[in-house]
Design a protein that fits this description.
Layout: H1 8-14, H2 28-31, H3 37-52, E1 55-56, H4 57-64, H5 68-81, E2 84-87, E3 97-100, H6 101-117, H7 124-134, E4 143-144, H8 146-156, E5 161-162, H9 165-174, E6 175-176, H10 180-188, E7 192-195, E8 215-220, H11 224-230, H12 243-255, E9 258-259, H13 260-267, H14 271-283, E10 287-289, H15 292-299, E11 327-330, H16 338-345, H17 349-363, E12 365-367, H18 381-394, E13 398-400, E14 410-412, H19 414-425, E15 432-436, E16 460-464, E17 467-473, E18 476-479, H20 485-496, H21 502-508
Parallel strand pairs: 4-6
Antiparallel strand pairs: 1-3, 2-3, 5-8, 7-8, 9-11, 10-11, 12-14, 13-14, 15-16, 16-17, 17-18
Helix pairs in contact: 1-3, 3-5, 4-5, 7-19, 11-17, 12-14, 17-18
């Protein structure tokens, strides 16, 4: 056994009868300390682990010619100190391995660095092609059936879009033959809620805007509290509302969640006046209903709230009446007190981690530039970066350079990396994909080159193989590439094509 001179005092306690060849002595400064056998063995095992890396108990015992139980005692003392860790670090290891904590962290950093170097970044064009498949907006790859709506909402949770855009553009783009009753069923079952999270900083400057353009998000009910904790508190004071809206607020405060007819009876207002008050409160982010039918009714002119006709009575009748909204209730939000203000500087880790997972599920790959399309009240990138690095260290996600042309750190789900590689290898298909300006895939000026298209319902973007070729802004078409006349006609038809079926579109118009 080879022993360094400064370790001789420790080994004399472990092997008192050992013969030295050549006979040397430890330096004077190392002979002054008094050792016990347990302390000496603990220091020897510690030094072995600092140099060997992952090693088993049997290997340490054999190298020191000591019984296994003595080594296990030394390892237990090191674990109590927190200086070593146990686990399975080597493929095919037959028993538990031990490694110094600092050395293990160093090995992990090398592993992460190697994994990052293995990834070949894709172009922005291929990344957009990937996003179309990831969010199922490619024709013939859309999700089907009411059960798929739950997955779509989970992927889009927290994304804010004009109220009228959800059922006219965003959901039909991802669900084949979308029917509005699917969303009503999810809301009435308590699995999904709709609400407004963002608010105008100055309510006098338009905080109570038109209901059709009010930013609304769909959330799984189980995570709604996390999102409301992340969003800023309402800036609209009840005293700033109209008299009818204040009357409805007082009714809901005193009676709790109430049906439309109950609100009319309690306030003594006309039915149309109650509708106007509810629209004002929805735009202010203060009330919501059990069903999406309540919001849909406020978007629909009263003269159009009627069944589609006797010919379709055998099917489920459309619910565009505000009476079908279920109960109306005040939205529970945290008041803007000092604790809330501190939360913006010290964000809730559970909330930040949930939002990070939601963004990863939405885009597959997350980086700072991509999140410019998201709400301004999301946690700061530096806060999300801490969570992303921790998830990478745990092996839940991968870090590296996934999209070329975008600076900063990037992180991706493992399944997204596989799809990215498949998309890069796939040949161009010439498929045209048209999305609304309010859609999260409106990435012109963010990922795709070109001027940004305002996130408005009637604006549109047309992609071909991940390249934006035309935009529709303010009713005017702007061509971003030169096309042949026949191609231009087909592209124009695809650009203005609506995803939603004609019966629902007639009402939403």
């Amino acid at each position: 056994m080879w022993v360094a001179a400064e370790r001789l005092p420790q080994f004399h306690h472990v092997h008192p009868n050992a013969r030295l060849a050549p006979p040397i002595e430890a330096p004077a400064e190392f002979r002054e300390r008094t050792w016990t056998r347990d302390d000496a063995l603990t220091e020897i095992v510690r030094s072995r682990l600092e140099g060997l890396g992952p090693v088993t108990t049997s290997a340490i015992a054999d190298s020191l010619s000591l019984p296994r139980d003595e080594i296990e005692g030394a390892l237990a003392r090191l674990i109590a100190e927190g200086s070593i860790m146990s686990g399975s670090y080597t493929p095919g290891a037959a028993e538990t391995e031990w490694c110094d904590r600092a050395l293990l962290a160093r090995i992990h950093r090398y592993t992460v660095k190697r994994l990052r170097q293995e990834i070949e970044p894709v172009s922005s064009k291929d990344f957009l092609r990937f996003l179309f498949r990831w969010q199922h907006v490619v024709p013939n790859e859309q999700r089907q059936g009411p059960d798929a709506l739950d997955a779509v909402i989970a992927q889009l949770q927290g994304f804010e879009a004009p109220a009228a855009a959800w059922e006219s553009e965003i959901l039909p783009a991802r669900l084949e033959d979308y029917e509005f009753t699917w969303l009503d069923d999810l809301c009435l079952s308590g699995r999904v809620v709709w609400t407004r999270l963002s608010h105008t900083a100055n309510p006098a400057a338009g905080g109570r805007g038109p209901i059709r353009t009010t930013p609304v998000t769909l959330l799984p009910r189980r995570s709604a509290s996390l999102w409301t904790r992340a969003a800023p508190p309402p800036v609209v004071n009840v005293d700033e509302l109209g008299s009818r809206a204040r009357a409805v607020v007082e009714t809901l405060r005193s009676h709790g969640a109430s049906f439309y007819d109950e609100i009319v009876q309690a306030t003594g207002l006309l039915r149309t006046q109650v509708e106007d008050a509810l629209a004002e409160l929805v735009a202010a982010g203060l009330v919501a209903s059990d069903s999406f039918a309540g919001l849909r009714a406020l978007l629909t002119p009263s003269e159009k709230r009627k069944p589609l006709g006797k010919a379709k009575r055998h099917r489920r009748s459309p619910l565009f009446g505000i009476e079908e909204a279920g109960r109306w209730s005040l939205v529970k939000r945290t008041p803007p007190d000092a604790a809330t203000k501190r939360a913006y500087y010290e964000p809730d880790q559970d909330m930040v981690e949930h939002i990070v997972h939601a963004l990863l599920r939405r885009y597959g790959v997350v980086f700072w530039r991509l999140l410019q399309r998201e709400a301004a009240w999301l946690p700061a990138w530096r806060d999300m970066l801490r969570v992303l690095r921790r998830l990478e260290a745990r092996g839940d996600i991968r870090g590296g350079r996934f999209v070329a042309g975008s600076s900063g750190e990037q992180f991706a789900l493992p399944e997204a990396i596989t799809m990215l590689r498949d998309t890069r290898r796939a040949d161009s298909s010439g498929i045209l994909v048209s999305v609304s300006g309010a859609d999260p895939l409106n990435l012109v000026g963010v990922i795709a080159p070109g001027a940004k298209v305002p996130a408005l319902l009637n604006n549109r973007v047309l992609y071909r193989d991940g390249v934006a070729i035309a935009t529709l802004t303010g009713g005017e078409i702007t061509w971003l590439v030169d096309l042949e006349p026949a191609e231009a006609r087909a592209a124009e038809s695809a650009l203005v094509k609506r995803q939603v079926g004609s019966p629902l579109l007639a009402y939403l118009r």
